[in-house]
Design a protein that fits this description.
490 residues, Rossmann fold, KARI_N, 55% helix, ten-stranded mixed β-sheet, alpha/beta
């Protein structure tokens, strides 16, 4: 699979970023570009945002704030009887001024209609939305689930409509929180990819770029809807959610069996991943995790890394195959039908999660060092996903954002503030279903394959490959576009 990353813009000044094996065209964001938004949104007078989940709320608010003072109006569309009506009103969207209404009415009035309702609702009701669209309205997506569903069901997007995607590389709360921080630190926000799936009038690229700038994206890179869908769904099940949950549960058990008390075991497992390991990667890259250890700790890291890489890569490859051939999507749809409106049971029932409050309470009293074994397991799993994406032909910006940046700059800070189990239970249903399906697979592979193998000497060839890995170059290039602020989780 090959993605075209070069593009041009009539509106925005573009940059070229050096990546392994070539260059990618990117757009550096920032509030200094807001005056160009009316040009980018030429022909758009009304933006309809359907849905008020985390992404719907964040994107509607960011778009409204960025377009303030223009004649472009942002309206939120919700289903009849939605429990979100009160919250949307509390955030200033009202029926009285036409910025809040029935979802199909809002869809029918929009020049750009952004579909941010739950995946299950989108699968069930997309034909109604398509039928409501006015001629020539542009369909906006923030990931490729609908395209995957249409492909599996034999459907397609309606002809005559542009289809674009802008996909923030972080959860909705991060998209909004970093945008708010960007009012004080120019460029603070969540990176986004964009894709143009249909462009009947030739305006799609600038419209997508304007949408991304209005969301506050520090940099925007191009992908395809298919590539984004695969990397996004695989990432949720692997290093972003599923693998992390399986990893910290297995590590906690390992450390408890080795004699650690509950708090120490939690600090060496979950707290280490979400805290010092994530911060080190965010600020200095993957190699810095190992380089910051003394020789004895490096030996532990090396054995954990080389024992973990192969079993983690096998599972990532299996997930990718099942996403690519539609199996994973079908499993999500079947689960949604089975569950209906019933809530899922919580995933944080194991004993370790009762310890999290005690660990957070003592954060200010100690400087937690990187645990070398935990670090080796985490970095190996992250590298396994990177390598799988690279082998499948994804562009480097997509690889580092979906495998590294989204993890360490968006999800893991929230996991640090709440805990991993909380995040798995409070993400989208599609992500929750994937994490529940694949997290136990990773847990079993760590406990049954990786950890026993870590008793043996490290694989020198794997370590050499890690030291010379091209991802370090790609991450360094992306770091040059990173805003000079860490997300503040409230």
């Amino acid at each position: 699979m090959t993605s075209t990353t070069a593009y041009t813009s009539r509106v925005f000044p573009l940059d070229t970023m050096d990546v392994p094996g070539g260059t990618e065209t990117v757009l550096r964001g920032g509030r200094h570009l807001f005056p160009l938004l009316p040009q980018a949104f030429a022909g758009i007078r009304r933006i309809g945002v359907l849905g008020w989940g985390p992404q719907g709320r964040a994107q509607a608010l960011n778009l409204r704030d960025s377009l303030a003072g223009t004649d472009i109006r942002v309206a939120v569309g919700l289903r009849p009887g939605s429990h979100s009506l009160a919250d949307a009103r509390a955030h200033g969207f009202t029926e009285d001024d036409g910025t809040l209404g029935d979802w199909l009415t809002v869809a029918g009035e929009g020049d750009l209609v952004i579909l941010l309702i739950a995946d299950s609702a989108l699968a069930a009701h997309h034909q109604e939305i398509f039928a409501a669209l006015q001629p020539g309205a542009v369909i906006g997506l923030s990931h490729g689930f609908l395209m995957g569903h249409l492909r599996e069901s034999g459907g397609g997007f309606p002809p005559g409509h542009g289809v674009i995607a802008v996909c923030p590389k972080g959860m909705g709360d991060s998209v909004r929180r970093l945008y708010e921080q960007g009012a004080h630190v120019n460029g603070a926000g969540i990176n986004s990819s964009f894709a143009v799936h249909a462009d009947p009038d030739g305006r799609a690229v600038d419209l997508a770029l304007g949408w991304s700038v209005a969301l506050g994206s520090p940099y925007t890179f191009r992908t395809t809807l298919d590539s984004e869908y695969r990397s996004d769904i695989v990432g949720e099940r692997a290093i972003l959610l599923g693998a992390v949950h399986g990893m910290v549960e297995s590590l906690y058990t390992r450390y408890r069996l080795a004699g650690d008390d509950e708090v120490t075991a939690y600090e060496r497992s979950c707290e280490n991943v979400t805290g010092p390991i994530a911060r080190t990667i965010s600020r200095a890259g993957l190699r810095a995790v190992r380089e910051g250890l003394d020789q004895a700790a490096r030996d532990v890291f090396d054995r954990a890394y080389t024992a973990t890489y192969a079993p983690a890569r096998e599972i990532v490859a299996e997930i990718y195959d099942e996403v690519a051939d539609g199996t994973e999507l079908r499993s999500v749809i079947l689960a949604e039908r089975r569950l209906g409106a019933r809530p899922m049971s919580g995933i944080g029932g194991s004993p370790m999660w009762a310890v999290s409050n005690r660990v957070r309470a003592r954060r200010d009293s100690r400087d937690l060092p990187v645990d070398p074994f935990t670090a080796g397991v985490f970095v190996a799993t992250m590298t396994a996903q990177i390598d799988e994406f690279a082998e499948r032909g994804h562009p480097w910006s997509e690889i580092v954002n979906e495998s590294v940046i989204e993890a360490v700059d968006s999800l893991l800070p929230y996991m640090h503030a709440r805990d991993v189990a909380y995040m798995v239970d409070n993400c989208s249903r599609t992500a929750r279903l994937g994490a529940r399906r694949w997290g136990p697979r990773f847990l079993a592979a760590y406990e049954q394959i990786a950890y026993p193998a870590a008793d043996h000497p490290a694989d020198a060839a794997l370590l050499a490959a890690f030291a010379a890995h091209p991802v370090h170059e790609a991450l360094a290039a992306a770091a040059g576009l990173r805003p000079s602020v860490d997300i503040s989780v409230t």
